[in-house]
C-alpha cells in the first residue's frame, strides 16, 4: 500500500516541516523569473511550470559565495573562514532533471577534496521530486537516459494523481523517510491513478555521440567550427545548466582587507582560459563550445562514469541564438561514419 | 515570388558572383516558431534561408565578429530597420567600412507581413525620419513612466530587485551590436575593475556600466532584452538613456552613417547644464 499526499494538505505539511526547523523551498515566480525560493504556503509555489528558468543548483552552489574574510595587519594576517549556513531545507517540487543534476555533481565536489560548501548544503537538504506531467519542445531527458520520473538525486518521488488532487508517494532514502514521518498524520493510505508521463522523444543517440567524441580525430574536426559559428559567447547555457559547476576565485577589497569569493565562471568566456602571458589556448568560440560538449560527454564520463547532462534543455530553451546541446548532439549523431 | 525566395536567389547570386564571401541570414530554428542565424558561403546554402515575421534578431551583431571583415571582403546580411540603424552607428563610430556590407533589407509590418526594403548599400536607406518618430510599444512607455514617477529610493529598490536576478552571463553584451570592445571592462582583471560577483554592488556595476556605455548609441533593437535569460527589463534602461541624450543634445543614434557620435564629439552650442 502506498501513501498519498493531498494537495489540500500541502499547507499543513509546509507548516509542520517549518515547525520542525526546515525551510521549505519550491518553484516560485517572482519579478518575471522562475527559480527556487523559500515559501510559506502552497499558494506561493509555481508547481505547474514545466521547469523553472533558474536551476536548483543555485541553492547548493550560489553564484557568489564568500569564502574568507581577511585583514592584513602590520605584523599579522587575520582571516576568518566563512561557512555556509547549516539550515535544514526541504526542496519541494524539484523536477527529475534538476534533482539528477545534484547527484551528477556530487562526485565532482567530493573528488580529491570534499567541498564543504556543497556538502553542508547537500547534507542538510531533502529533495522531494515531482514526476513531470508535461514536457516542452526542449526537454530531452530520455536522450541522456533519464526519464520524466527519474528518481536520481531524490529522497522522495511524488507522482501527480490524474485528477490533480495530490501525489502518490515513493520514499527513496532514510532522509526522505524522516521527512515524511513529520507529516505522517497528514498522509492518506491508498493507491491513486497517476498522471501518464509525458512523451519525451529521443532526440539523439548518446552512445554514438560518445563514440565519436572519444575518437581523437574528432577533436580537430571542422564540425566544431561550423556548429559554433553563431555562438555569441555568452554564459547563459552554462549558468542555467543544472550541472555546470565551474567557478573562479576573486579577492574583493583593498590592500589591507577584503573578502575572497567563489564566483560562477563559464567555459564560454574567453577569460576562462586566458593565461597571464596573454596566450589563450581556447582562443575561439568553437574551441570553447567543443570544450563544453567534451566535458559533458567525454571527460566527465571518463572521470566519474556519468555524463554531465540531465536533459533539462535549458541551454537551448534560453539560448539567444537557438543553439544548445540538443542540436550539437543531433548533428554528431547524424554525421556520416 | 515571395520575399523569402527573392532573397534566397539574391543571396545565391551574390555568393556565386563572388561579390560577397558570406551571407548572414536566418534559417529554421529548433521549434516551429524559432529562427536562428544562418551563415551561407555557397549558393546552395543560401537556399536554406528563411525570411518571415519570426526573423526578429538583429544580425548586425555578427558583422564585428573577430576577423570577419579583416580581409577586406564583403559580407551580405539580412537586416531590419533596427539592424540598418545599428550599421549606421557602427560606421559613424568607424567600426565598419560601408563598402564591406551588402544589405538585404526587410521590414516586418503589422507583426506578420515581410516587405523588402529598396537598396543594397547603407547609403541607400534613409531611415532617419522613421527613427526620429519611433515610439516604443505602449507597455514599455507605461512601465518607464511608472519608474520615472518613483522616488529615488523606490527606484533604487526597483532596480536592486531587478538586477539581483542578474547571473552575469553577459548575454546582453554578447548579442549587442554596439558592445564590440575586444576586451570589455568587466573582463579586464589585472586588476578586476568591475566586480564579477553578483552581489548588489556587482550587479549595479555591470548593468550601469553597460547602460552608460550605450547612452546615445543604442539602436533600440531589443536584442539585450530578448536575450536576458532572467528577464531583466533592459529595454527600460536603454529607453531612458536614449531619452536623456535626446533631450540634452537633440540626438537620435543611427539616423545616418555620417552622424558624429554624440558623446565623442563637441559642439559650441552643447548645453553645459552639468557644469557647476
TrEMBL record, chain A:
Domain 4Fe-4S ferredoxin-type, residue spans: 221-252, 300-329
SUPFAM superfamilies given in the database record: alpha-helical ferredoxin
Pfam family membership, one: Fer4_22
Record GO terms (molecular function): iron-sulfur cluster binding; metal ion binding
Organism: Chlorobaculum thiosulfatiphilum (Chlorobium limicola f.sp. thiosulfatophilum)
Keyword Iron-sulfur in record: yes
Name this polypeptide is given: 4Fe-4S ferredoxin
UniProt cross-references to InterPro entries, sorted A to Z: 4Fe4S_Fe-S-bd, 4Fe4S_Fe_S_CS, Helical_ferredxn
Record's keyword terms, sorted: Iron, Iron-sulfur, Metal-binding
UniProtKB/TrEMBL annotation, chain B:
Keyword vocabulary terms for this entry: Iron, Iron-sulfur, Metal-binding
Domain 4Fe-4S ferredoxin-type: 156-177, 209-239
Domain of life of the organism encoding this protein: Bacteria
Pfam family, one: Fer4_17
Keyword Ribonucleoprotein appears in the UniProt entry: no
Signal peptide positions on this chain: none
Presence of the UniProt keyword Metal-binding in the record: yes
Molecular functions per Gene Ontology: iron-sulfur cluster binding; metal ion binding
InterPro entries: 4Fe4S_Fe-S-bd, 4Fe4S_Fe_S_CS
Protein name: 4Fe-4S ferredoxin
Source species: Chlorobaculum thiosulfatiphilum
Lineage start: Bacteria, Pseudomonadati, Chlorobiota, Chlorobiia, Chlorobiales
Amino acid at each position: 500500500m502506498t501513501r498519498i499526499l493531498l494537495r489540500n494538505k500541502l499547507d499543513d505539511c509546509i507548516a509542520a516541516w517549518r515547525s520542525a526547523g526546515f525551510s521549505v523551498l519550491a518553484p516560485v515566480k517572482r519579478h518575471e523569473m522562475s527559480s527556487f525560493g523559500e515559501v510559506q504556503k502552497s499558494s506561493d509555489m509555481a508547481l505547474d511550470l514545466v521547469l523553472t528558468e533558474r536551476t536548483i543548483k543555485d541553492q547548493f552552489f550560489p553564484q557568489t559565495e564568500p569564502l574568507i574574510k581577511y585583514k592584513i595587519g602590520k605584523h599579522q594576517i587575520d582571516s576568518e573562514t566563512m561557512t555556509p549556513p547549516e539550515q535544514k531545507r526541504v526542496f519541494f517540487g524539484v523536477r527529475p532533471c534538476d534533482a539528477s543534476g545534484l547527484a551528477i555533481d556530487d562526485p565532482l565536489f567530493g573528488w580529491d577534496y570534499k567541498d564543504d560548501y556543497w556538502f553542508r548544503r547537500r547534507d542538510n537538504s531533502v529533495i522531494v521530486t515531482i514526476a513531470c506531467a508535461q514536457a516542452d519542445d526542449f526537454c530531452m531527458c530520455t536522450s541522456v537516459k533519464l526519464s520524466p520520473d527519474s528518481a536520481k538525486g531524490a529522497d522522495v518521488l511524488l507522482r501527480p494523481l490524474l485528477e490533480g488532487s495530490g501525489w502518490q508517494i515513493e520514499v527513496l532514502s532514510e532522509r526522505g523517510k524522516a521527512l515524511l514521518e513529520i507529516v505522517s498524520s497528514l498522509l492518506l493510505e491508498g493507491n491513486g491513478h497517476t498522471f501518464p508521463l509525458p512523451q519525451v522523444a529521443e532526440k539523439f543517440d548518446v552512445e554514438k555521440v560518445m563514440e565519436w567524441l572519444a575518437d581523437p580525430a574528432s577533436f580537430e574536426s571542422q564540425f566544431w567550427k561550423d556548429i559554433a559559428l553563431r555562438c555569441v559567447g555568452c554564459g547563459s547555457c552554462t549558468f542555467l545548466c543544472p550541472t555546470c559547476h565551474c567557478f573562479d576565485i576573486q579577492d574583493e577589497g583593498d590592500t589591507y582587507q577584503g573578502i575572497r569569493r567563489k564566483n560562477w565562471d563559464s567555459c564560454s568566456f574567453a577569460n576562462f582560459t586566458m593565461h597571464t602571458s596573454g596566450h589563450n589556448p581556447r582562443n575561439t568560440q568553437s574551441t570553447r563550445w567543443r570544450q563544453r560538449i567534451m566535458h559533458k560527454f567525454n571527460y566527465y564520463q571518463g572521470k566519474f562514469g556519468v555524463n554531465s547532462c540531465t536533459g533539462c534543455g535549458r541551454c537551448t530553451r534560453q539560448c539567444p541564438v537557438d543553439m544548445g546541446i540538443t542540436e550539437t548532439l543531433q548533428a554528431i549523431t547524424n554525421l556520416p561514419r | 515570388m515571395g520575399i523569402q525566395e527573392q532573397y534566397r536567389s539574391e543571396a545565391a547570386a551574390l555568393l556565386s558572383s563572388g561579390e560577397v564571401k558570406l551571407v548572414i541570414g536566418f534559417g529554421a530554428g529548433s521549434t516551429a516558431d524559432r529562427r536562428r542565424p544562418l551563415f551561407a558561403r555557397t549558393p546552395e546554402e543560401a537556399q536554406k534561408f528563411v525570411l518571415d515575421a519570426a526573423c526578429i534578431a538583429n544580425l548586425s551583431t555578427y558583422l564585428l565578429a573577430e576577423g570577419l571583415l579583416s580581409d577586406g571582403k564583403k559580407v551580405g546580411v539580412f537586416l531590419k530597420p533596427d539592424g540598418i540603424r545599428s550599421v549606421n552607428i557602427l560606421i559613424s563610430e568607424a567600426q565598419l567600412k560601408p563598402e564591406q556590407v551588402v544589405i538585404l533589407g526587410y521590414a516586418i509590418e503589422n507583426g506578420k507581413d515581410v516587405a523588402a526594403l529598396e537598396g543594397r548599400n547603407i547609403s541607400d536607406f534613409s531611415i532617419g525620419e522613421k527613427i526620429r518618430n519611433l515610439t516604443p510599444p505602449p507597455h514599455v512607455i507605461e512601465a518607464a513612466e511608472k519608474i520615472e514617477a518613483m522616488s529615488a529610493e523606490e527606484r533604487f529598490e526597483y532596480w536592486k530587485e531587478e538586477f539581483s536576478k542578474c547571473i552575469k552571463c553577459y548575454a546582453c553584451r554578447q548579442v549587442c551590436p554596439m558592445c564590440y570592445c575586444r576586451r570589455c571592462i568587466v573582463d579586464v582583471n589585472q586588476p578586476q575593475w568591475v566586480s564579477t560577483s553578483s552581489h548588489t554592488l556587482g550587479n549595479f556595476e555591470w548593468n550601469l556600466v553597460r547602460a552608460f556605455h550605450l547612452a546615445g548609441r543604442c539602436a533600440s533593437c531589443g536584442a539585450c532584452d530578448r536575450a536576458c535569460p532572467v528577464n531583466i527589463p533592459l529595454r527600460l534602461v536603454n529607453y531612458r538613456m536614449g531619452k536623456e541624450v535626446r533631450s540634452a543634445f537633440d540626438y537620435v543614434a543611427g539616423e545616418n552613417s555620417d552622424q558624429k557620435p554624440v558623446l565623442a564629439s563637441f559642439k559650441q552650442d552643447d548645453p553645459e547644464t552639468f557644469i557647476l
